[in-house]
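Summary for the lay section of the report: proteins are chains of building blocks that fold into shapes. Here we show the chain for Ribose-5-phosphate isomerase A and then a coded description of the shape we predicted for it.
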Amino acid sequence: MTNSSPLTQDELKALVGQAALQYVVPGGIVGVGTGSTVNKFIDALAGMKNEISGAVSSSVASTERLKALGIAVFDANEVESLAVYIDGADEIDRQGYMVKGGGAALTREKIVAALASRFVCIVDESKLVPTLGRFPLPVEVIPMAVQHITRRFAALGGVARLRLKDGQPLVTDNGQQILDVTGLSIKDPSAFESDVNQWPGVVTVGVFAHQKASVCLVGTAQGMVKTF
Ligand code: 5RP
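The coded shape description reads as follows.
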């Protein structure tokens, strides 16, 4: 009997996580992102751990998962460049522009992405958007600037809310806080990223335009991986 039911979101994540292995360069160090989709990639990467030197990780959570599977983790300062960085996204458009940071790891993700020649984004099809702005935009900020930055987003028509965890402001791996901004439609991602990055107190804005995806692997309900 054939099973024609569409794949679950979890199965789609596993599909693209597995598909991303083809971009890993044997003998090299791979840049590794953060999130539930990347967790599937890390699990798949464990199957070829003897063929790579190790990884540079974008979060404490990914580092712990990599190490638990026996994959060496290098500090970003130990490597000059990476052939590839593999990460998920909260949304991605057809040009490869992304919003990231749903897992609060955007700053380290952008740093590791900047080391890499190629950014391979792995997503299920729910993440595809025509224009960035559907997902609340994560912005990592210095705590003393929260109200100032909230007012600056309000002037753009956005509503910024401090991300909480267990009722308290979430603290990132870098000791900072996250604002999630709704109500934005980001028509020029490169200009938007450059502009917001200049605001005093902004550590990193979750628009990835200067570090956009070079390749996107999209898991579809039919169990196929589309590439663009
Ligand atoms: C973490 C990220 C993730 O890539 C993004 O949130 C997608 O996560 P998931 O694969 O769990 O949907 O940017 O900061």
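Put simply, here is one thing we learned. Residues 33-37, 87-90, 100-106, 109 surround ribulose-5-phosphate (CB under 6 Å).
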